[in-house]
Write a structure and sequence with these properties.
This protein is an all-alpha fold. The chain has 2 domains: about 70 residues, no CATH class; about 45 residues. Helices cover about 90% and strands about 0% of the residues. The protein has 6 helices and no strands. The longest helix is centred in the N-terminal third of the chain and has 25 residues. The radius of gyration is 24 Å and the shape is elongated. The two termini are about 30 Å apart. About 5% of the residues are buried.
């Protein structure tokens, strides 16, 4: 489980490299499938069309892979944290008031719930 978390974080931080590898791998699969179809007797154009239809567009694969590997949650969390940091930098008074409120809540929670 820990290795999956590290892999997810590495993928998020190296997103462009991950997408480049993903596209290269998809192109290899399409090329190999096209060659298999040509070997079965289809014309090159028909084989390329069927291979692209079978594998789908690059945009679909780009959206499906993170969802299937559990990266959407981590990616969304990073995106939300960046947005929150930008919002909080725009209005420092709001940030201070909310931080003070949160600190008071946490302190009161732990003072009333001894461990």
């Amino acid at each position: 489980m820990l290795s999956k978390l590290f892999r997810s974080m590495r993928t998020i931080t190296a997103r462009s490299g991950f997408e480049t590898e993903l596209y290269a791998e998809l192109r290899d699969h399409i090329r190999n499938f096209t060659q298999d179809l040509i070997a079965q007797g289809l014309s090159r154009e028909e084989a390329e069309r069927r291979a692209r239809t079978e594998f789908g567009s690059l945009a679909e694969v780009k959206d499906d892979v993170p969802a299937s590997s559990g990266l959407m949650l981590a990616d969304g969390l990073v995106r939300n944290l960046r947005y929150a940091a930008r919002s909080l930098r725009r209005n420092p008074a709001f940030t201070l008031i909310n931080a003070r409120t949160l600190i008071r809540f946490v302190a009161s929670f732990f003072s009333t719930n001894p461990r």
